[in-house]
Write a structure and sequence with these properties.
It is built from 6 helices and 7 strands, in the order E-H-E-H-E-E-H-E-E-E-H-H-H. The chain has 197 residues and is an alpha/beta fold.
Length: 197
């Protein structure tokens, strides 16, 4: 079965994280970058996660997971032992909420990705939850080959898009035009780099 790739706007939206260990900490950091309002539920909390809870959009609840914890969430992250993750998944499923169950595919209805963010571009790689380490390696490979000036590419693509929309350029013609524009940008920057002493 194929997955449907999707990027979520979580800024200002409630996300539940069940688990208080190092894996939960990593997910909380990424969710904070996305602007989520986070509730962490776990009987034990890593000190670093506890410290994050004192700084930002995080509420920490020191107890075991209860089914009612999923209410009001836009997304649920299960980063606890498998038995707890299964309980989280069942509670979330009853409310039609997606669950990112870390390294527990049987409890997951969504998978995280190896994610690269640079210059306004986000690239995510998934292995359908089967091999997260491979997704991470692929992300690192992409990071090595993407240009450092991806911000410039994004700005040019945005400018081109506005021009095409104003001019009524058909969708089928846009990618070749963008490739030409980016090649020009690349050539200009490469020529400029050669001129510098």
């Amino acid at each position: 079965m194929s997955l449907y790739p999707l990027f979520l706007k979580l800024a200002g939206r409630q996300v539940l994280v069940v688990g208080g260990g190092p894996i939960a900490l990593g997910k909380v950091r990424a969710l904070l970058e996305a602007g989520a309002v986070i509730t962490v539920v776990a009987p034990e909390i890593e000190p670093e996660l506890e410290a994050l809870g004192k700084k930002g959009n995080i509420s920490i609840v020191r107890r075991s997971f209860e089914r009612s914890d999923v209410g009001g969430s836009w997304l649920v992250v299960a980063a606890a032992p498998s038995a707890v993750n299964r309980s989280v998944a069942a509670a979330a499923e009853s409310l039609r909420l997606f669950v990112l169950a870390v390294d527990d595919t049987s409890a997951a209805s969504a998978y995280g990705a190896g994610t690269l963010r640079r210059g306004g571009v986000t690239v995510a790689v998934s292995t359908d939850g089967r091999a997260p380490a491979l997704a991470g390696l692929l992300r690192e490979g992409l990071e090595a080959v993407l240009p450092d000036d991806l911000e410039g590419w994004s700005a040019e693509a945005e400018r081109q898009r506005a021009d095409w929309r104003a001019s009524g350029v058909p969708m089928a013609e846009r990618r070749p035009l963008l490739l030409e524009a980016l090649n020009r940008l690349y050539d200009e920057r490469r020529a400029g780099a050669k001129v510098r002493p």
